[in-house]
Input
Amino acid sequence: MKEKQPGKKPDKKAADREDRLKAALKANLARRKAQQRGRGPDNSASPSEDKD
Output
């Protein structure tokens, strides 16, 4: 990723890309939270644990 240079405006293409990435990240986070809520508090143990 390129570093931002002070005093230089980002071009429209880069700004649009950042906006799309922010929106995708927000949607992904919301989807993961909903998925976790759907699992419920009962399944909080990791799958690698043995419950014999």
User: Anything to note?
Assistant: Residues 8 and 14 are 12 Å apart (CA to CA). The chain has a mean pLDDT of 80.
